[in-house]
Specification:
By secondary structure, this protein is of the alpha/beta class. The protein is built from 14 helices and twelve strands. It folds into two domains: 216 residues, Type I PLP-dependent aspartate aminotransferase-like (Major domain) (Aspartate Aminotransferase, domain 2); 136 residues, Aspartate Aminotransferase, domain 1, CATH 3.90.1150. The chain binds pyridoxal-5'-phosphate. The site of pyridoxal-5'-phosphate (PLP) has 16 residues, from α3.
């Protein structure tokens, strides 16, 4: 360490005529400019440059551009979580006195946002079944600004009638936002069937390694995309550079992981359906799924990486199965490289009464599986063995 009092406290980044092939991680909170004129030009958007990380940083820009390309979009924002993306969709389109319609099987926190937080801000909300166009239309009022749906719902894997909802929403001058987390852009690009806003929890299969919490949101309308950026900087929804860097790395293997997990999930679903301890299997492209036809046409004929199933019996059988399937993490997340098993009655849907859960078809014996990239035979064998143990 130098003791020279004129020594600069900050080191200089080395010059290099060649570039790294991997995106550098840029944790800098702040960026130094050459002079006031340069800073002025930056703020006016005349020259490119970063100023303060909450307003934007290179790792978020890089990740957003990759996600934009996957959704066939431009100008999307990466934010600090999937819930930040859901919040942005609502905050950017609705104000006090407006009304928003949500699907009745939204992700648990999205439901809480709709039913507990928006009303507090003076935004009225209604919930309706996104597989029933009559129910959605009946929920629309003259004050409705947005309909928020998920391509594939959690955990019953119902497939929304997105094209039908878009048609009737646009007839009423209402925007449609699609949470495309479960389907992913390889299952469906919602803009191709008329969606106005698409959002993701990047935390899940896109990032894929359960080590980054992130969201992404993009609209067709450039004005809305600008609003997302402004709101994100103002409310403080900004993503961490390190999480963006990890997600970028994960994204490069996304297509491989999608193909592997989807192929294995379809096989696992068929195998589970053959087992005598299994009461019911839910997988979108299976013939016994209520939305089979829509799933096949909407999702490129692929059912995705999520499988749900029900075993006979109560909590004792549930515990016995989780213990017997000890090689599979019992954890309430999805989209990890490793298979995870979740039990909605004690996790995502624990706030509901038993009657409410039963109305959705979520019995005590209900499990949701997020299929990972393990050897398919080994994984299916592990499920088979755990079910045999019942
Ligand atoms: C996980 C999830 C979210 C929330 O994402 P976070 O990154 O956990 O905030 C929103 N929608 C769906 C469908 C999800 O699965």
């Amino acid at each position: 360490m130098s003791t020279d009092p004129k020594r600069l406290l900050r080191a200089r980044w080395p010059e290099s005529a060649s570039r790294p092939v991997v995106s550098p991680l840029m944790p800098s909170v702040v960026y130094a400019s050459d002079d006031a004129d340069t800073l002025d030009q930056q703020y006016e958007g005349e020259i490119a440059g970063y100023t303060y990380a909450r307003e934007g940083h290179p790792n978020a820009t890089v990740l957003a551009s990759l996600l934009d390309a996957m959704e066939g979009a431009e100008g999307g924002s990466v934010v600090g979580s999937g819930m930040a993306a859901v919040s942005l969709a609502l905050l950017a389109t609705a104000s006090a006195g407006d009304h928003v319609v949500g699907a009745d099987q939204l992700y648990g926190r999205s439901l809480r946002l709709m039913t507990e937080e928006l009303p507090r801000l003076g935004i009225d909300t209604s919930l309706a079944d996104p597989t029933d166009l009559g129910a959605i239309e009946a929920a629309i009022t003259p004050k409705t600004k947005l309909i928020l749906i998920e391509t594939v719902s959690n955990p019953t894997l119902r497939v929304s009638d997105i094209a039908g909802i878009v048609e009737l929403a646009h007839r009423h001058g209402v925007l449609v936002a699609v949470d495309n987390t479960f389907a992913t852009p390889l299952g469906l690009q919602p803009f191709t069937i008329g969606a106005d806003i698409v959002l993701h929890s990047v935390t899940k299969l896109l990032s894929g390694h359960s080590d980054a919490t992130l969201g992404y949101i993009v609209a067709k309308d450039p004005g809305l995309n600008e609003r997302f950026g402004v709101l994100s900087a103002t409310y403080g929804f900004t993503a961490s550079p390190f999480d963006c860097w990890l997600a970028e790395r994960g994204l490069y293997s996304f297509e491989l992981r999608y193909e592997r997990t989807t192929t294995t999930a379809a096989r696992l679903a068929d195998r589970l359906a053959e087992h005598s301890a299994v009461k019911r299997v839910i997988y979108p492209t299976r013939r016994d799924h209520p939305d089979h036809n829509r799933a096949v046409s909407l999702l490129n004929g692929e059912g995705g990486h999520m499988v749900s199933f029900e075993v006979e019996g109560g909590r004792q059988k549930v515990n016995a199965f989780i213990r017997a399937a000890s090689g599979i993490s019992f954890a309430p997340t999805l989209g990890d490289v490793a298979t995870t098993l979740s039990h909605p009655p004690t996790s995502s849907h624990r706030a509901m009464s038993e009657e409410q859960r039963n109305a959705l078809g979520i019995s005590e014996g209900f499990f949701r599986v997020s299929v990972g990239c393990e050897n398919p035979d080994g994984l299916i064998g592990a499920f088979q063995d755990a079910l045999d143990a019942l």
